[in-house]
Design brief:
Layout: E1 2-10, E2 20-29, E3 41-46, H1 55-60, H2 62-69, E4 77-78, H3 80-93, E5 104-106, E6 108-109, H4 113-121, E7 131-133, H5 156-162, H6 174-185, H7 193-200
Parallel strand pairs: 1-6, 3-4, 5-7
Antiparallel strand pairs: 1-2, 2-3
Length: 204
């Protein structure tokens, strides 16, 4: 299966008030996984006329504001109205096909993508007509949940620790975080969860 691992950095948590600062996505094919560095990748930093956000989110994304303030040409810079048209072109260039309504529908993956990122994507011009997410989305937290001990879905850093990654901190950089989601999902390609359950046999 092909899917798009997507991550956003934003100026806050409210999609009606705050803004996308960075969007990155990588295309993964679970049937033919490539080295991470060779995955088709898309990244954009998003320029707005003005920025509204929380102090914490702005401090966390200081590097993006430095990039946005640079005067040198930046091919990864765009405005919010350009973001989905450019993402659509990227998807079409990698053989995703539009549906009957000419919208590119794609299975998306990401940490908290359904409850966080999707809300911001839905505010962008062209969402639902140029690009849209398939209803079913992949969140690696479900694969790293301890059903007996956890009281909530694990964070990205807990997922990385349970996957025994050497680097367990969350980068809070969209492209790095999108790649981490692929890394977290890959162990389950060869032995899906339902096979693990069946092979474990009845619990005693």
């Amino acid at each position: 299966m092909r899917y798009l691992s997507l991550d956003l950095e934003t100026s806050g948590s409210n999609p009606l008030r705050h803004q996308i600062l960075e969007l990155a996505a990588v295309i993964e094919d679970s049937r033919h996984p490539l080295p991470l560095a060779e995955l088709p990748a898309f990244r954009r930093v998003v320029r707005h006329p003005e920025y509204a956000g929380t102090a914490g989110a702005i401090a966390l994304n200081a590097r993006l504001f430095q990039e946005l303030a640079q005067k040198t040409p930046n091919p990864e810079l765009c405005g919010p109205a350009e973001l989905l048209p450019q993402l659509r072109e990227f998807l079409l260039a990698h053989h995703f096909r539009p549906d009957k309504k000419d919208c590119v529908a794609v299975t998306m993956a990401g940490k908290n993508i359904a409850v966080f990122d999707l809300g911001f994507l839905q505010q962008l011009p062209g969402y639902g007509t140029l690009v849209r997410a398939e209803p079913a989305m992949l969140d690696p937290a479900a694969f790293y949940l301890n059903w007996r001990k956890d009281s909530r879905l694990p964070t990205m850093s807990i997922c990385k620790a349970r996957a025994r990654f050497d680097d367990r901190e969350v980068a809070h950089e969209a492209l790095a975080d999108a790649l981490d989601v692929v890394r977290l999902l890959r162990p389950f390609y060869e032995l899906p969860v339902y096979q693990q359950v069946n092979e474990a046999g009845p619990e005693r």
